[in-house]
Design a protein that fits this description.
Layout lengths: L5 E3 L5 E3 H13 L1 E4 L2 E4 L9 E2 L9 E4 L5 E2 L6 E2 L3 E3 L6 E3 H4 L4 E2 L9 E4 L21 E3 L6 E2 L1 H4 L4 E3 L6 E5 L22 E4 L7 E3 H14 L1
Antiparallel strand pairs: 1-2, 3-4, 5-6, 6-9, 7-8, 9-10, 11-12, 12-13, 13-14, 15-16, 16-17, 17-18
């Protein structure tokens, strides 16, 4: 067992000194020379094997390989693929919910500045403008435009393809035709949300982003 020294941060939480040193090392390493002038940028790359200081959890979070589907304790949505988990209390997060940004942007909403919240602000029920589902936990919210996005929806891939690579679907802000799975353009309550649309001229496939998640789960169950 490896022992490490901890100190208390300004919120009274234990913080690993080794983690602090590693982040300081990154800051120094990422100081670059460009146009003859030095500047630096600080980041915590997504996919780090260990997260010591998540804003919503006091224990270290370890990167886990893909396994069975799970429910994310952050956004409360279903999860697939890699995750971050706590070995002490079984807390689990999507990669996107573990590596959160205080301020984020999305090309579909160029006038929106999304701020991260652990739960939706205000008292009324809010829904994600990408998948149409209710916001039950972590969310990116723009106070000026009123748009809301689940962390996973904010960071959806621009394109996905089937396991054989025969069909490629491109992320679209609109639902141009009926979803092949849901048989409607609307997801729920007249909300259209985003979709994945076929890039192939001879294929008119169109799926809500929420339906793509359901298809992934169905495929996993079938093995």
């Amino acid at each position: 067992m490896r022992l490490g020294m901890t100190v208390c941060d300004r919120n009274g939480r234990d913080v690993c000194v080794a983690g602090m040193v590693e982040r300081a090392r990154r800051r120094l390493k990422d100081t670059l020379l460009r146009c003859g002038k030095a500047f630096s940028f600080v980041y915590d790359p997504p996919g780090d094997n260990l997260i010591m200081d998540h804003p919503n959890h006091s224990h270290p979070l370890h990167l886990n390989p893909p396994g069975a589907p799970y429910k994310c304790n952050g956004c409360k949505e279903l999860g697939f693929g890699p995750s971050y988990g706590c070995e002490i209390c079984n807390y689990i997060l999507h990669e996107e919910c573990a590596n959160v940004d205080r301020l984020a942007f999305h090309r579909f909403f160029p006038k929106s500045h999304f701020e991260f919240f652990e739960k939706a602000p205000g008292y009324r029920t809010r829904y994600c403008d990408a998948c149409g589902k209710d916001v039950l936990g972590f969310v990116y919210h723009c106070s000026q435009t009123g748009f809301d996005l689940h962390p996973c929806c904010l960071k959806l891939k621009d394109s996905v393809c089937d396991k054989d690579g025969c069909v490629t679907l491109k992320l679209s802000q609109k639902v141009p035709r009926k979803c092949l799975k849901y048989k409607s353009r609307n997801v729920v309550n007249k909300v259209k949300g985003w979709s994945y649309v076929s890039c192939n001229e001879d294929n008119n496939s169109c799926y809500h982003v929420s339906c793509v998640k359901e298809l992934i789960l169905e495929n996993w169950k079938r093995g």
